[in-house]
């Protein structure tokens, strides 16, 4: 039993560790404008873009009829980008942003729940919370994986950011990749805990169900190892040199040898 408890505690602490890694790394990816960035040696007019921020250095969009040049880093929904918003934020980018919100909220809720379990505010062995935390991280991992795949594919699309051969996936993309892996490991350890709980409940259920049968079998066995045809029970005390003899007809007091 102690060995099982140690295993459960180890799996929980490992799951909590990877949960915290996922929280920190995805927070950095969520707020950083370095999902896609230009390589410095090319001095591109496009500098970098994240989920919520984009940076330009004198960028002129070919279809902008007023030929406005964009400088600096701005919120991606800044009104100044209204004329190029259909190019800057295509439909797939909306999907990436929404999945990012879902992933961040899922990891945040699971981190709060597992932190509460760590300080014993919530029951650490509760199957309901095991299921909830597993679902949260499974959902977050799936959303982040979709983000990574779509961003990697679309970053090579010439209809989006100019000169894709001069761009590269940046720091935030790497952080999101680490977060996705951390979510996967968290799901694995939580699933192991869930399976362990099921196994222990199954063993306990088997023992409980077999209890009356074991009791009946024990009652049918002869009492004591010294019982003869007369039904005597004898108990020998090895250390004291004394014995107790109880005969079916009546009791007999202790006698010293």
TrEMBL record:
Q: Which residues cross the membrane?
A: 12-31, 92-114, 135-153, 173-195
Q: What InterPro entries does this protein's entry cite?
A: PMP22/EMP/MP20/Claudin (IPR004031)
What keywords appear on the UniProt entry?
Answer: Membrane, Transmembrane, Transmembrane helix
Major location category of this protein: membrane
The protein depicted here goes by the name Uncharacterized protein
Quote the subcellular location field of this record.
Membrane
Q: What organism does this protein naturally occur in? A: Macrostomum lignano
Q: Name one GO cellular component term.
A: membrane
What superkingdom heads the lineage?
Answer: Eukaryota
The way it spans or sits in the membrane comes to: Multi-pass membrane protein
